[in-house]
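Researcher: Going back to the complex we discussed earlier. I've cleaned up the inputs and rechecked each line, so this should be the final set. Can you rerun the prediction on the complete assembly and write out the structure?
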Amino acid sequence: MKYYEYTKEMLQKELENQMEIYNEYKARNLSYDMTRGKPGADQLDICMEMLDTKYLNNCKSQANLDCRNYGVLDGIPEAKQLFAEILNVTPKQVIVCGNASLNIMHDMISRFLLLGVGNNAKPWCKNEKVKFLCPVPGYDRHFAICELYGIEMINVPMDDNGPDMDLVEKLVANDEAIKGMWIVPKYSNPSGIVYSDNVISRLASMKCAADDFRIFCDDAYTVHFLDNEPAKQANIISECAKAGNPDRAIIFTSTSKITFPGAGISAYASSEANIECFVKWMGIQTIGHDKLNQLRHVNFLKNYDGVIEIMKKQAEILKPKFEAVLNVLDEKLSGLDILQWTIPHGGYFISIDTLEGCAKRVVSLAKECGVALTPAGATFPYKKDPNDKNIRIAPSFPPSSQITMPIEVLCVCIKIASLEKLLNN
Amino acid sequence: MKYYEYTKEMLQKELENQMEIYNEYKARNLSYDMTRGKPGADQLDICMEMLDTKYLNNCKSQANLDCRNYGVLDGIPEAKQLFAEILNVTPKQVIVCGNASLNIMHDMISRFLLLGVGNNAKPWCKNEKVKFLCPVPGYDRHFAICELYGIEMINVPMDDNGPDMDLVEKLVANDEAIKGMWIVPKYSNPSGIVYSDNVISRLASMKCAADDFRIFCDDAYTVHFLDNEPAKQANIISECAKAGNPDRAIIFTSTSKITFPGAGISAYASSEANIECFVKWMGIQTIGHDKLNQLRHVNFLKNYDGVIEIMKKQAEILKPKFEAVLNVLDEKLSGLDILQWTIPHGGYFISIDTLEGCAKRVVSLAKECGVALTPAGATFPYKKDPNDKNIRIAPSFPPSSQITMPIEVLCVCIKIASLEKLLNN
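Model: Rerun complete. Updated structure for the full complex:
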């Protein structure tokens, strides 16, 4: 029976029951952390061999370049090749960088602000206002970049196919101040959904009032499947090219969740014209990124198939953790109609939506009970979830044995918050 | 006898002699490259052992942190400690980053432009004009950053003690648009001079019209001595603190020329207040830099004394190359009064000044003869040496055996250009 079909007395009784269970948990002095979207130690062990000096090949690239010395701004050719395979573009469309794709995205925005998007475009900062479309729920670190630089963020709701494209098309067509949009097109953070090819194609072809509109495509999870293979998806760069907007999209990715989060390599891809301009700018910022680490990665991962082999091992560890969360949610909450959740086929998160106005209360109840969750609102621009519904669950970091219990606690908290809300209605 | 004491006939005769020698060299189809301020392969071999996995200590920091994973924005504590020793500041004043200090300098300028220097200061880009003082000759990559972002550069001449401080003090006192200044205080690029403590102290205490004036102190060569030990020098950060301008200076450095240019670690230091603000900004740009490489470096280099041991080995290789250049200059040109050159006790360059208006001609003559030199003007903002005098010689990269010959060619080119000039006067 669904909670909203309960009588007031039944709700009251159920709340008392759940409070009793909650207090039992509380008495146990639990301590769990479900906040961090980072790999567990067992995942990091998968690529330990990569640190062996044999993968440095005497510090020489395939073209016999000494990777210890200065130079090679856009990455060693074999690393460009590897990312070209991962991102389904040509090596000429790729620049390989240091250990963090977030860094590249941040720097791209700061350059667009100061220099414009290239080709003598007006610097974004010369406009009175710069706005970005932000599909929600989304990645807090994207939003933090916009917030730092005073870029106004506009929420765009998402469904299982990606952002609401009718809304997106209407917004970009009519507002020249909208200069960019964040997307995480595959295994989206946090919902785990995969944008449909139709959404990708509409993003690529839509008419924009601003001719310097750019799509920041964070493809962080492009090969991060939980099942058998990565989801197939239209390539936004080639879709943009087909639609006559070749320079619209930039894809960012990294090996942070393939090899090591703290010591991976990152890359970005775009049209050849964009890449030419970006390399020129980057040449003022650095003489080159860490080529020894690029070498290590390429010699260890070898090629796309090598990456997929690693990702299968990652999935073997991750999938049971996701299943543990989903099983508890299913067992404890299905049929009550108080929670919606996603069933991701990849990525790092499970996104849950409580009844309206309950997310903050849930997180606070859980905290009191020793279960740390990502703060409610974190998945929205300005940390403000207008409906106070969304919570991001990160199952990757805790050991398998420490997932069921905190999710059980979470379910009790969800029940309590929902019952309180229904009683107050 | 000095050239300028020659009669016209003597000059003519000498020019014919030198042209004959020049043409003999030319006939040999030489090919030498004296342009690149990068370490030679033998220098890179000094630290090869660092790549051994034993220096990763199982990927654990001293505080048992897993350096493979995300986190630790400001660098692992032991890396902060190491750079604190190198820069003579406290670890709290240090942030350790990725492989390039140039990258930090660039990013600092782009943030100051977009965000101001901190503490709610007005973003530099909101001013009609932003100007930087540039001691000359200086480092082309500093000037390139300013040029990219439209920062107007003002040349400040240098002598053996550093920049002309009377001029500097006058300029900054009267022009609020002057927001910054580049300095390379020790073994300056390219002159190799060491700023005197008096210059450091005047930089720290001078009155600036702009209260958001900042000194970008590129201490790239802080331990890069050629003799027995690094030159002692007053610390600009503590001098600034003493003078009541605690936030004025930021020091940048790296291990690029200690371990590996392409795969070192970098750091910057400033007042604790600045560092607090910079960490906040950096936290939007990245989740953390490559901590495995930080770990490798610290476990291999250990501490300041360990760094000095490595630098002694570097000097053993570099010093004979510097001497080879200086010996040829001395042997071929001393007494002619057509060239001034520096005798550096550290750093990577020898700076030479021809007679006025001769540098471009010298570089072009050398090129025709198969000797590549850094383009004349490269050591000045906008690549314009107003006196067309300065040329930067980089002796580090070629093997020892390939230094005497190109410098002999250079000397002939200098003689020819000087004779031409004297004949045309």
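Model: Worth noting: Chain A touches chain B through 52 residues (CB under 8 Å).
Researcher: Good, that matches what I expected from the previous run.
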